[in-house]
Amino acid sequence: MAEKPQPVRVLYCGVCGLPAEYCEFGPDFDKCKPWLRQNAPHLYPDLLNDAKEKDVDKAAEQLQAVGISGAGDGGGEGSSANSGSTSGSKQEEVKRLPGGKIKKKEKQEVVIEKIVRNKRKCVTVVKGLELFGIKLSDASKKLGKKFATGASVVKGPTDKEQIDVQGDIAYDIVEFLTETWPDVPESAIFFIEDGRKVAAA
Amino acid sequence: MFKKFSFEDISAQNQVKASVQRKIRQSIADEYPGLEPLLDDLLPKKSPLIVAKCQNHLNLVVMNNVPLFFNVRDGPYMPTLRLLHQYPDIMKKFQVDRGAIKFVLAGANIMCPGLTSPGGALNDEVLEETPVAIMAEGKEHALAIGFTKLPAKDIRTVNKGIGVDNMHYLNDGLWKMERLE
Predict the structure, then answer these.
(1) What are phi and psi of B158, to 5 degrees?
(2) Is the pTM of this model over 0.80?
(3) Is B86-169 assigned to CATH 1.10.260.40?
(4) Considering only Cβ atoms within 10 Å of each terminal Cβ, which end of chain A, N or C, has fewer?
(5) Among B residues 68-87, those touching chain A with beta carbons less than 8 Å apart
């Protein structure tokens, strides 16, 4: 039998979990940078240079801050704190998808749709409750109890979960929603009528 | 294939019969001769082997809660990237150029030009419908596992369209599933 090859130990990034050399293509290279600088400096020589430059920048900033603080301590601290926070908040605002696409935060709204089946029977579909932090299984139970019909959590299109309630309950579901969950404002509830979105309020 | 993959996609996990276990071992050994001496460590004969069935006719071979191999329908078994990183020489290798890395890591299939350009490399022995490791220009480790659509020679001559299907890539759902309970 051939000799056993030894397993290769791969350096995985502590932040994103990818092999360190792929961090630059990972979901958030910026966040990995500090870790990489410490643990895998040989893979990204550019980073080290960057870091040095940054250090120089920082030093310069500090010098400036000191200069300002000569005039007033509060002002100097404020400015340095600001410069730190702006770079931080920028990263949080824009969530980058792989490929440079930017992910938008989803709007919190509840969409109610009536689907007719078998001519005189219909199903009311409630979408988007989960965006308000409501447990869908609880919600469906409550809806079923209130309207005395079947209500279930169903996987809708694009893998989103929605609640199907048997029967046409569109007429007073709005009131029920706003009463049971005060977090849901009436202005965030929409109906779909003839393929168009209509505000409930 | 694993772009969206989570625990919810696993429909059943079963400990398989010894005979099935032997069959799986045999087919893995046939596919990856380089792995044969290691098989006793990876898939000990005595310990229970679990096969997780997932959607789209996908099977995961799980040992000690770690997914090690996967296959589709009755197709060949392919190692997970974590396993491949440990034993990189068990699979035939293709290499893509640097420009392709971004797309491959987003789940794109591997197009012929990325393999034939100066940064890429092909292993001419590879025929169609074979699992291959996808390496990248200037990188040490594999970034994806593919399943060839064309023989390597045709990839070179056609030089257009999909050459290798991307089965499993870094940071996809299976990659993130380090352990399975």
Answers:
(1) -70, -50
(2) no
(3) no
(4) N
(5) 85-87
